[in-house]
Write a structure and sequence with these properties.
By secondary structure, the chain is α+β, with helices and mostly antiparallel strands. The protein contains 2 helices and 10 strands; from the N terminus they run ααββββββββββ. The protein is globular, with a radius of gyration of 23 Å. About 10% of the residues have low confidence.
Length: about 160
């Protein structure tokens, strides 16, 4: 019987076998599902700056929902005089205790966005947003092109 002690090739082989057996015996922790991530952040449901107000450009409503298939979406409702936008949420990642990174695709033209939501005292707002080219659209809650400050939105009953 060949011993590993003093034989560098045999020691290396034993080390590789040991690492492989540990990797097989200890499966990787499963990533939470998209729905679980959205639920744990408390995002599912309808959000608005003031739920008593009808949707309008100054009081938009956002509906975050999941379907039995596991697909998730965000529907942005700016009122009757502006078009509704629907986004498929491709992934959601908790990047801080108060921040959730969403990767979304607009169903209209399939353009993609990364949107970071910030939660504070039970409200949420768009904190950071980038288009598929990496161009920053919203930073620290402010739309860079217009100076418009993204509103804090509360969950509607």
């Amino acid at each position: 019987m060949t011993r590993a002690v003093g034989n560098p090739r045999m020691a290396k082989a034993c080390q590789l076998i040991l690492m492989a057996s540990v990797a097989i015996a200890a499966p990787a922790a499963a990533e939470p599902s998209l729905e679980t991530t959205l639920q744990e952040f408390g995002l599912l449901g309808t959000w608005a700056p003031d739920c008593r107000e009808a949707p309008s450009p100054l009081h938009p409503h956002a509906l975050y929902a999941t379907e039995p298939s596991g697909q998730a979406s965000m529907t942005y409702e700016p009122g009757p005089h502006a078009p509704r936008s629907v986004y498929t949420i491709l992934s959601a990642e908790r990047i801080a205790d108060d921040k959730l990174l969403l990767r979304e695709e607009w169903r209209h033209d399939h353009s993609r966005l990364e949107v970071t939501l910030r939660r504070f005292r039970g409200k949420v707002k768009v904190w950071l947003s980038r288009d598929s080219d990496g161009k920053t659209l919203v930073q620290d809650g402010t739309v860079l092109a217009t100076g418009y400050v993204s509103p804090w939105m509360m969950r509607c009953p």
